[in-house]
Automatic annotation (TrEMBL):
InterPro entries for this protein: HAD-like_sf, HAD-SF_hydro_IA, HAD-SF_hydro_IA_YjjG/PynA, HAD_sf, PGP-like_dom2, Pyrimidine_5'-ntase_YjjG
Coiled coil (UniProt feature): none
Protein name from the UniProt record: Hydrolase of the HAD superfamily
Top-level taxonomic group: Bacteria
Length: 227
């Protein structure tokens, strides 16, 4: 790691506590729209459905508008909750608008960024929507840590497509051999980085990778022992 000069981070589920902030967003929307559903029951069904639709979106199989609508429609249908399409559209729009208002970070985020900022140049590569990712960074007060912020929408393709990582390297003016990618998604962040020669650190939730090319950590602060 002595030759490393730049560290790229994913944002959602890696630094920004997506699950917690998303839950608070739905709580606000359910109260406003008088959705008569238990929030925990909703989230238990919604979260895996959301991940699956994100996979489809990442693989270019659905468009952004379809993702936003279908993840909600599928969840309400599975819960046998009758709701009009017009209201789903309202919830979808409110969700995007409200989500950046909640800005909890994963444990250790600030401590890690403070530790790294004097040793490396820090950047973001995210598949999240352009209009909300930069607001998240600003509202959670971590924007100033990063020199380059690359969203998949600005590139036109999504991680793990090599073009996203190549674009980020070019923007940061660094070679792949001198960069690290930190992310929670084994496919999008870790394997995507490996494909272009960037060394990855996998922030895993349940099971670490057995691939010897991959550093696996279960908490952000564990990264300090490697960088």
């Amino acid at each position: 790691m002595t030759e490393i000069t730049d560290v790229f981070f994913d944002l959602d589920h890696t630094l920004w506590d997506f699950d917690r902030n998303s839950g608070l967003t739905f709580k606000k929307i359910f109260q406003e729209q008088k959705i008569n559903l238990d929030l925990d029951d909703f989230l238990k069904v919604y979260e895996p459905i959301n991940l699956e639709y994100w996979r489809l979106y990442r693989d270019e199989k659905i468009e952004k508008e379809e993702l936003r609508y279908k993840r909600l429609k599928t969840t309400f249908d599975k819960l046998n909750y009758t709701i009009e399409d017009d209201l789903i559209d309202v919830i979808s729009e409110d969700y995007i608008n409200y989500l950046p208002l909640f800005n909890h970070l994963l444990d250790g985020t600030i401590e890690l960024l403070e530790y790294l900022k004097t040793k490396y140049r820090l950047h973001i590569i995210t598949n999240g929507f352009e209009e909300v990712q930069k607001i998240k960074l600003e509202k959670s007060q971590i924007n100033d840590y990063f020199q380059v912020v690359v969203t998949s929408e600005s590139v036109g393709v999504k991680k793990p497509n090599p073009k996203v990582f190549e674009f980020a390297l070019k923007e940061a003016k660094v070679s792949a051999e001198k960069a690290i990618m930190v992310g929670d998604s084994l496919e999008a962040d870790v394997l995507g980085a490996l494909a272009v020669g960037i060394s990855p650190i996998h922030l895993f939730k349940d099971t670490p990778s057995s691939d010897e090319r991959i550093i696996s950590v279960q908490s952000l602060l564990d990264i300090k022992q490697y960088l």
